[in-house]
# Entry
Amino acid sequence: MVRVHKHFMSPIYFSFSSAFILGLIGLAFNRSHLLSALLCLEGIILTLFVATATWSLILNSTSSSILPIILLTFSACEASAGLAILVATSRSHGSDNLQNLNLLQC
# Structure
């Protein structure tokens, strides 16, 4: 028999999912500048980090406690690569406006 909980979604899960969805919506609909896209990606990754850290605390297992550290490491690598791309495009094209970038042109 399946137990049905009285509360479908706790406030902490609602805040994690709403922050993740807001980051996805911002990434999907705000395509004017590269910096805003990178900030939306960083918000998504940080939401995933906090959710996995909370998940590993709830489970109380040592095997799942390394996952948030790995995710934070990949987040730092993603942020540094995004910053390098932002600097390179603003030096070569003069701005980070995505409409001015032509990826087929060297």
About this structure: The radius of gyration is 18 Å.
